[in-house]
Specification:
Largest sheet: 18 strands, mixed
Helix content: 10-25%
Distance between the termini: 63 Å
Shape: globular
Number of strands: 30
Oligomer: single chain
Strand content: 15-25%
Structural class: alpha/beta
Number of helices: 20
């Protein structure tokens, strides 16, 4: 469609407001006169079913010398992971099924989902299309994305076009689009080393697949290739051998003396076969320049010429490795002393790593020095991960650890000499924590307990994204639930030394699933066991709880407050006769109580200063919960076991800013939280009030100088929860509770002036 040029005159100050108005009302507000009387000219170009604004301002970048502009343009082809929107033709979209209303349900067609919406919003050009103006979330629903084509810079202006054609470095990145593009790139790049990056389109992208003829033409120049990066996803309607065979055949019969980086990233389905890499028949055997090797879904035969001493980055994903025994594995890495990054995941490791005792070759001395190693990612059995870590010596102060333990029937058994092996493993993590430089610390702890999928994952990160991080993941099967308690104990022993009680400021916990199924096989696997080892993080300022972590963690904090106050975990006092009553004879005590009835009334409980676990806590975030649900997993729970009652008790000891996200609660619960916290400390981001079930009411307990929370269920059961003796909140300054006709309903009072 030919471009249509629209010219408008705007005030300079009204430009942005007018553009926002076009998005909302599809109308353009115009004012041809500026404040100084001079019109400001800009143009809107309608192309490819979208629009963009081009102001008539001088192009300062074109004032640069040609040599400098040529240097800038030479970096553009190396830009990766940049997506642009391919806008749909709105004339081909029917009004049927499209809902433009603002009130839509989650399952409505106008809601593309958070994942698709996030992918669309990350793309350049999102929302500046006619589909977005016509339909709700139109750009995310009807438009698609594709990688940015760096050849678009040739169409910017004649100057850029001329400079790009005169710059050989610009054409070293071969774009596998069509045959003519590859021919032009090979000619204009001269004799410089080449970079070939190619991939097929995903389901979210609407672009043509790379030309097989163009790919073969580019691979014929393998002797000039410096970077070879192939990424293919296998779909049901295509086999990836059709695309990987040209790569393997060229590597088999052509030299690759300049190859610096080889990445064959292949995501296969269960029906696809592994790509066979047998380097014995390849022409190139030395690979003198190879630094990076990343293979996915490949069967590597030994000996492998790709495992050269010059490697600095090695990544194997879903592969059959060339080593058949632990001795072969250790011998291979003894010759890779220059490694900076090592990643082995989804790969079957030698089985003798799981023997009772590791068989170390006599001609190999352990541990193997890895002085340059900065990143380690290992996935395998419990014994494999620990024994590989013990076999390497790497800089503890600058190496990121990403370990995935897969526990089998052995559980956390180290085999022969378990005490010595356990001591070495714990010493490794303790030394790792002590080697962290002064001023460097892990400020965020992320815990993920997935009891349905059976895994525990802990991630420790630093404020500086470029700093080291630690990620430990432990998985097991349902058949090995008996080891869950021992696994949790090992997680505690290895992670606790890494915590900083004075510097760790954020704690994020996600818990899904039920404890009772695992606790039947492992009684020590309880919520208290999952949280007791983080009680020492006294400097926490933010806690984010999600899903089942909300009821279990808040109930755990209340139990810890009760225990610290000398009460039972439930908050009750142990029944015992007072010392005064014990001294008095029975008849004399009865006579005094009959004459003075007030003596039979319970004495007010003395207030106890609460011992807070996290005294510096400033924000508590609750994500995805129902405050009216019970926290117990059994069906015979009492009314006071609802989540709101435990949160109500906790707020008597500490009142951080409470953030509610995707939270369901009754109107009375919401009213009570507003009364206690005030708007300044209650952030209702997404709250969904429901019917009053259970029904609650809060009233004064005048005898105890506290409050009482009455909980009523539809089944007729009721329970009164009293404010705890460790409550530091008085009645003043926390709203006003009125007993309207004796029903004890809550009504918000006026806030104090000093608040």
């Amino acid at each position: 469609m030919p471009s249509t040029l629209f010219q408008y005159y705007f005030k300079r100050d009204d430009t942005q407001r007018a553009l926002a108005g076009t998005r909302r009302t599809r109308k353009v507000i115009t004012d041809p006169v500026q404040d100084d009387g001079q019109p400001v000219l800009f143009q809107t170009t309608l192309t490819h079913h979208s629009f963009r604004i081009n102001f008539k301002n001088p192009c300062f970048i074109n004032m640069l010398p040609p040599e400098l502009l040529m240097e800038i343009l030479s970096y553009l082809p190396s830009v990766s992971n940049l997506k642009v929107r391919v806008h749909a033709d709105p004339s081909k979209l029917s009004d049927s099924g499209a809902n433009d209303s603002e009130e839509v349900e989650d399952d409505d067609d106008s809601n593309p989902g958070w994942y698709r919406m996030g992918l669309a919003q990350c793309c350049n050009g999102y929302g500046n299309c006619l589909a977005e103006l016509r339909f709700r979330n139109g750009c995310a629903r009807f438009c698609s994305s594709q990688p940015w084509n760096f050849l678009d810079v040739l169409r910017v202006c004649k100057r850029w076009h001329t400079i790009s054609y005169a710059n050989p470095q610009f054409w070293t990145n071969i774009a596998i689009q069509n045959f003519d593009t590859v021919v032009r790139s090979l000619v204009l790049s001269g004799s410089l080393p080449l970079t070939i990056i190619s991939s097929n389109s995903t389901r979210e992208e609407k672009r043509q697949w790379p030309s097989l003829e163009a790919l073969e033409l580019a691979l014929d120049q393998l002797s000039r290739v410096r970077v070879l990066d192939m990424f293919f996803i296998s779909f049901n309607h295509v086999q990836w051998e059709f695309w990987t065979e040209p790569v393997i055949s060229r590597l088999r019969r052509l030299p690759a003396t300049q190859l610096n980086s080889l990445r064959l990233k292949l995501l296969r389905s269960h029906s696809d076969r592994l790509v066979r890499i047998r380097t014995e028949t390849w022409v190139e055997q030395s690979f003198p320049a190879l630094r990076t090797l990343e293979l996915s879904a490949a069967k590597i035969y030994a000996p492998c010429a790709l495992l050269v001493q010059s490697l600095t980055e090695l990544s194997l994903v879903d592969c059959e490795a060339p080593w058949k025994s632990a001795a072969d594995f250790l011998h291979t890495f003894a010759g890779l002393s220059q490694l900076r990054s090592l990643s082995i995941t989804k790969t079957e490791n030698p089985k003798d790593f799981d023997d009772e005792r590791l068989n170390v070759p006599r001609n190999l001395s352990l541990p193997i020095p890895m002085d340059h190693l900065r990143f380690i990612e290992l996935q395998g059995s419990f014994r494999f991960v620990n024994r590989v870590l013990s076999a390497f010596v790497f800089p503890l102060d600058s190496t990121t650890l990403k370990l995935q333990y897969q526990h089998d029937d052995f559980g956390v058994s180290f085999g022969a000499d378990p005490d010595d092996a356990l001591a070495k493993t714990l010493h490794l993590f303790t030394s790792y924590a002590l080697a962290i430089p002064t001023g460097t610390y892990f400020n965020e702890v992320n815990l993920d307990f997935d009891l349905d999928e059976r895994f525990i994952e802990i991630t420790l990160s630093q404020p500086d994204p470029s700093g080291v991080s630690v990620q430990l993941k432990h998985t097991w099967t349902e058949a090995n639930d008996r080891h869950a308690g021992d696994i949790l104990n090992f997680v505690r022993q290895t992670s606790t030394p890494l915590f900083s009680s004075k510097r760790t400021a954020s704690l994020i916990i996600l818990l899904t699933g039920r404890f009772d199924e695992i606790a039947e096989s492992s009684p020590t696997f309880t919520p208290d066991a999952c949280y007791d080892w983080i009680a020492g993080l006294s400097a926490l300022r933010l806690i984010r709880l999600s899903s089942q972590a909300i009821p279990t963690f808040i109930a755990w904090m209340v139990r810890r407050l009760n225990t610290a106050a000398g009460l039972l975990p439930s908050g009750d006092e142990e029944e015992s006769e007072s010392k005064e009553d014990a001294r008095e004879p029975g008849s004399e005590r009865l006579w005094h109580r009959r004459r003075y009835p007030w003596m039979s009334e319970p004495k007010p409980k003395p207030k106890i200063e609460p011992k807070l676990l996290f005294p510096d806590l400033r924000r508590l975030i609750l994500n995805e919960c129902n405050l009216g649900e019970t926290i117990n997993e059994d069906k015979d729970s009492s009314p006071e076991d609802i989540l709101f009652s435990h949160l109500w008790l906790y707020l008597h000891a500490q009142q951080p800013e409470l953030v509610l996200i995707d939270t369901e609660l009754t109107h009375r619960m919401l009213h009570e939280l507003r009364r206690k916290l005030y708007p300044a400390r209650l952030d209702e981001r997404s709250v969904y009030p429901v019917d009053d079930n259970p029904y609650i009411r809060v009233s004064h307990a005048w005898r105890d100088s506290g409050e009482e929370l009455d909980v009523y269920t539809q089944s007729g059961r009721s329970k009164t929860v009293k404010s705890p003796p460790w409550s530091v909140l008085g009645d003043a300054g926390h709203g006003h509770i009125e007993n309207d006709e004796g029903n004890g309903e809550v009504s918000a009072g006026k806030e104090d002036d000093d608040m």
